[in-house]
Design goal:
Elements (H helix, E strand, L loop, with lengths): L1 H30 L15 H8 L5 E7 L8 H21 L3 E6 L6 H8 L4 E3 L5 E10 L2 E5 L10 H13 L5 E5 L22 H9 L1 E5 L12 E5 L6 H12 L3 E5 L1 E4 L12 E3 L2 H6 L2 E2 L4 E5 L3 E2 L6 E7 L17 E4 L5 E2 L5 E8 L4 E5 L22 E8 L45 E6 L7 H4 E6 L2 E6 L3 H13 L3 H6 L9 H37 L11 H68 L1
Parallel strand pairs: 1-2, 6-7, 6-8, 8-9, 9-21
Antiparallel strand pairs: 1-4, 3-4, 4-5, 10-11, 12-17, 13-19, 14-15, 15-16, 18-20, 20-21, 22-23
């Protein structure tokens, strides 16, 4: 009897446990809670989103258009749509009722399809010709905007895109952002007669135009309008002293400046030129702040170099978290950026100015002549000697700035008659008074300096694709994230900065990078030694072959033939040693990556297996003892 009672109790207990688990799962799923163990909380609504939602004075309605009943929609798209819906649910939950979600299924010739068209949500076309909708519209009071077509390729940016759309819908005004650059950032029609093709507007400019009022500033401007809240200066090649003076006074009046200088602007190809490589600086202002940037030098970094083998470039820096200031909101979570051919700032901040380094090189770096800017392969590291210095690539300066022009407005070089420091009558715009010369700022201000401009170019920052008939811009790295975070920090909602830095989740092998840099440095000296020996051998061999004199042809004495054979043997041995050095360098790197992957992939299962075996043996011994 007791046996049957025990069986009944056990069965009831198992059934009760299953019921409890089902009910618990049902109840918890209603709250849509999850635990996120990823680094940086990639699957958790960020504090930036919460900050934006908390500022809402009225409900925001988000309409989610998805053709869920379309059978031909690819399974990956369906999975992506579910994740979008999950994120919208997280927004609604975090808002406490301030975000209202409405889901619609826009079938052909339905009211939902008409609504999607009116609100700017676009149909996406599959290869089969079938169409489906996957987009959002956001409305707040009388403001409406849309995310016309959501793409899987921008999934890492989905929370940012949605939060930015909410912030844009609730914004009553758009700050004015100025852009001063001789480059064709806004696109151009080209110059057919000079062989210059037309160019599209850079994505960086297009992105800023969505959130701000952009104003182009003449590269030769002699004054900066105070209406411009933030001025972005990009590779100001050939800048005049008068324009630099205008920037100086703009900063002293409280204007925010982001200056992207460059010793070698690879993507800047002036009209009529065959290739880029222009240089720019703000010599007077940098000197006044205690710094300098040598426009004849570029950075080589063995730790952050890009490419491999013959395509290796030590001047193209693939930067990760070790290069960023982890304590700064603009760079704390960038992930990965690529800076092609950068310069470096030297010096120390002048009195009253605080320097905050945002991005830096490694200690396995040196400054090399700009003529080596695009050298590839082994030639790019020949003669490399690490400086042991972490050079600042990007930095923020703050404090009460003093003018870099203590004598007042500089005299235009092309107008000798305008002599008289501080006189600007001929340069002032008609109808506008000449601004008073400021020797020092009244209040503290902030300036950001970056020793590169190429990182903004589409060729370095984004991948542009055509997917389902839509032009999709996919960030290739965090380059734009960094630049736009700086602008938003100065002019937009600072809460967006935290969101933008979550865009890229790359996790490169930083330890491997450092060990590769150390190994490469050890081999560089050997490579140089062997290559020099090979060159001397070849030179000596040529001189011996020519020593027979004119008219003797290839006839050499026995001694000369012996010496030639010895040198040929030495040359062959030297080439063999070079091959071994290159092979060892590749082998060390590949072995390191292999064992790192083995440890990451196999170590945890191995530990679980060992623990399971130990636990089984331990329990067996315990039973035997009893």
């Amino acid at each position: 009897m007791k046996r049957y009672e025990t069986l009944i109790y056990s069965t009831v207990g198992v059934v009760a446990l299953l019921v409890i688990l089902v009910l618990a799962n049902f109840v918890l799923s209603a709250f849509k809670q999850r635990i996120d163990f990823t680094e940086g909380g990639l699957y958790t609504v960020s504090q930036g989103t919460r900050s934006i939602i908390e500022k809402l004075d009225a409900p925001v309605k988000i309409r989610f258009y998805y053709t869920q009943s379309e059978q031909n929609v690819p399974l990956p798209i369906k999975g992506f749509a579910r994740r979008v819906e999950d994120l919208l649910g997280a927004f609604r939950q975090a808002s406490g009722g301030k975000v209202v979600i409405e889901k619609l299924d826009p079938q052909p010739d339905s009211d939902a399809e008409d609504s999607a068209t009116l609100e700017g949500v676009e149909a996406q076309t599959m290869q089969s010709g079938d169409r489906f909708y996957l987009g959002l519209s956001i409305s707040y009071a009388d403001q409406k905007l849309a995310l016309p077509a959501l793409s899987m390729d921008r999934e890492q940016l989905l929370e940012y895109d949605l939060a930015r759309a909410i912030a844009r819908a609730t914004r009553t005004d758009k700050p004015v952002i100025g852009v001063l650059s001789p480059m064709t950032l806004f696109g151009s029609r080209g110059i057919p007669q000079m062989g210059v093709p037309p160019s599209d507007k850079q994505v960086f400019v297009s992105e800023l135009e969505r959130d701000f009022t952009l104003r182009r500033v003449d590269p030769g401007a002699v004054s900066i309008d105070d209406e411009i809240k933030v001025l972005i200066v990009v590779n100001p090649r050939g800048i005049s002293d008068e324009t630099e003076y205008a920037l100086d006074q703009y900063v002293l009046r409280g204007g925010k400046l982001i200056a992207m200088l460059d010793p070698y602007a690879y993507f800047d190809v002036p009209p009529g030129a065959q290739q880029g490589g222009t240089s720019s600086t703000l010599e007077h202002m940098l000197k006044g702040w205690g710094f300098a940037m040598d426009t004849t030098k570029v950075v080589q970094d063995m730790k952050f170099l890009s490419g491999a083998g013959e395509r290796q470039m030590s001047t193209v820096l693939s930067l990760n978290n070790e290069a960023f200031n982890r304590d700064d909101i603009a760079t704390g979570k960038l992930g990965f950026t690529m800076f092609p051919v950068v310069g470096a700032f030297t010096g120390s901040a002048a009195a009253g100015i605080k320097q905050t380094v945002l991005i830096k090189t490694s200690t396995f770096s040196q400054l090399t002549d700009s003529s080596n800017a695009v050298t590839q392969g082994e030639a790019s590291v020949r003669g490399f000697k690490p400086s042991g210095i972490e050079y600042p690539i990007a930095m923020r300066l703050s404090g009460k700035f003093k003018t870099a022009f203590p004598d007042g407005r500089p005299v235009a070089k092309d107008k000798p008659s305008d002599k008289g420091a501080g006189k600007a009558a001929a340069k002032a715009e008609p109808g506008k008074p000449v601004p008073e010369h400021l020797a020092e700022a009244k209040n503290e201000n902030t300036v950001v300096l970056i020793a590169d401009s190429d990182f903004l170019n589409d060729g370095a920052a984004v991948n542009i694709q055509e997917i389902f008939g839509q032009r999709i811009v996919v960030p290739a790295n965090s380059n734009l994230a960094f630049a736009q975070a700086l602008v938003e920090q100065f002019a937009g909602d600072p809460a967006l900065i935290d969101l933008r830095t979550r865009a890229i989740a790359a996790r490169p092998f930083t330890v491997i990078r450092e060990m590769e840099a150390q190994a490469a440095q050890a081999y560089v000296g050997k490579l140089k030694e062997l290559e020099d020996s090979l060159k001397q051998t070849q030179d000596r061999l040529q001189s011996l072959q020519k020593s027979s004199g004119p008219g003797q042809g290839s006839i050499m004495t026995a001694a000369q033939q012996t010496e030639v054979e010895a040198f040929r043997k030495k040359a062959a041995e030297t080439r063999h040693e070079l091959k071994l050095v290159r092979r060892d360098l590749r082998a060390d790197s590949e072995a390191l990556q292999f064992w790192t992957k083995v440890a990451n992939i196999a170590l945890l299962p191995l530990l679980v297996t060992v623990f399971g075996i130990w636990l089984g043996i331990h329990r067996r011994k315990k039973v035997v003892t009893i």
